[in-house]
Amino acid sequence: xxxSSLAQLAPLxxxxxNRDPRMVGxxxxxxxxxxxxxxAILAGRIVECEAYLGADDAAAHAAAGKTARNAVLFGPPGxxxxxxxxGNHYCLNVSCLPDGEAGGVLxxxxxPIAGVERMAANxxxxxxxxxxxxxxxxxxxEAMAITRERDNGKDxxxxxxxxxxxxxxxxxxxxxxxxxIGITKSADLPLRYVVAGSPFVxxxxxxxxxxxx
DNA sequence: TTATAGATTGCCT
DNA sequence: GGCAATCTATAAT
Length: 213
Description:
The chain is an alpha+beta fold. The chain has one domain (3-172): 3-methyladenine DNA Glycosylase, Chain A (Roll). It has seven helices and eight strands; from the N terminus they run H-H-H-E-E-H-E-E-E-H-H-H-E-E-E. It has helices at residues 3-6, 14-17, 21-28, 71-74, 116-122, 137-143, 148-151, and strands spanning 32-37, 40-52, 80-85, 89-95, 104-114, 163-166, 175-178, 192-195. Residues 206-213 have low confidence and may be disordered. The structure holds a DNA duplex.
């Protein structure tokens, strides 16, 4: 699909995100994350994400209750929660569940499909190094030029938003569930979702092979 | 007020 | 495989 028509697709509706993050995370695989930069469009197919829950999930930022930092997770569904981590990286989430209930999905990896040259440039890479452009949450945010200052609290569900999630008719993908990456608490919960066999997922062990169960 | 861990990445040996 | 980079939230003095 050419990029001009990608940009014209309607964003996924609010109801898509007004559900359990585990269902949202699973169903986001195969959808397209869009960023509009003036006239340019950056886009990638979602191949990896993770669900984060509320009080039951010790690894979630929402576990200890609502703060200024994580307020978006407690708000209405379909909004961007962007946080800064390790002094170096931004990570992008979408809020889930109704207003007042905490939950979200972390975007962990994209297969670049439009605006690839610009995404690569944001990462100081060549376009042919496609697997390195957005294979990890920090890389993904850098490729899509996402920062907390610019994007935290932004609505994904608005045709005027420069941050959107759309369905381009790609169809069903084969989903694998694994434990989440980089956490120590609640590390056994199988809340990571990946497209089976995708070479664009994060982790050195995952290039071109089936992810570890 | 000070210490430490963190939903990561990239460079070093 | 080890570890530095480098900001922020939270726990410990």
